User: What shape does this take?
Amino acid sequence: MIRIGMVGLGNISGFHRAGIRAHADRAALSVVCCRSREHGEAVAREAGCAYIPDYREVFGQCDAVMLLTPHHLHYPMARDALAAGVKHLFIEKPVTNTLAECDDLIARAESAGASVTVGYVLRFVPVVQQMKAILDSGRLGAPVAGLCRTEHGFTPEEFKALLTWAAKTEHLGGGVLFSHGCHYVDVMLWMLGDVTEATCVRNHTLLRNVMEGEDSAFMNLRFAGGAIGSYFATWAVRYRELSIDLRVYCLDGQVIFQQFEDASTALTLIDKTGRQALQPAVPAGDIGRRSIAAILEAYGAAGA
Assistant: This one.
């Protein structure tokens, strides 16, 4: 049984606690830590684990540590964890707020022989994995371009209530592109390879009075393999029907991943045979009725 220590009990921690419960045969939450004793003790009672107010005392009481704190705390806490001998460390994205801090953590982890994982969870969403498998199969030919759009929205009041620490760029690390958009930049890198050139434009609109960083941004990318890409991220959309639209265009077709406002997801392919709904819309995180192998087999038969 893997004993997990959790530092930080904000909004994202609920998803991680649910994930640990889903693997109760292999892992258990052994200790939690946050600044609010009242909240920490309440979570500890619910989870049946210990509460510790000082994060440094967590390190010796578990096999693996999860750092789910505001961005500017990732580096100092991870540095302390590695110095204390933690060998299995999970850090929520972004790993640090600066490149220098990230490079330093990599060096420290390698020196200590520690395993450090960053929370880029979209690579593990079944529908996204299916999209990646289709691209890697080569059936659509070489990638030409990637296009991603993520639409999310907060009112200023919601932003202040949900992200009380995120108003200043020194805490958040930037704006929507750095804080939230890094998930989708990571997926585009996974799909299309290393980036050789990137440019960005951004603005402040709906949230300009409650955060220093941008609330909308466009990024254009050139990939080493020859493909190009564009990504639009916003926290300033009040009304929408979808939250994620990711398309990869190839020489012989395109594949599209979408997540809708109700959190359902869909995977669609367009090629010489027409438009195919490879993955019926299913709740986020579910694989649906068809496995990756089944989808590839069906597409192979249709594309033969």
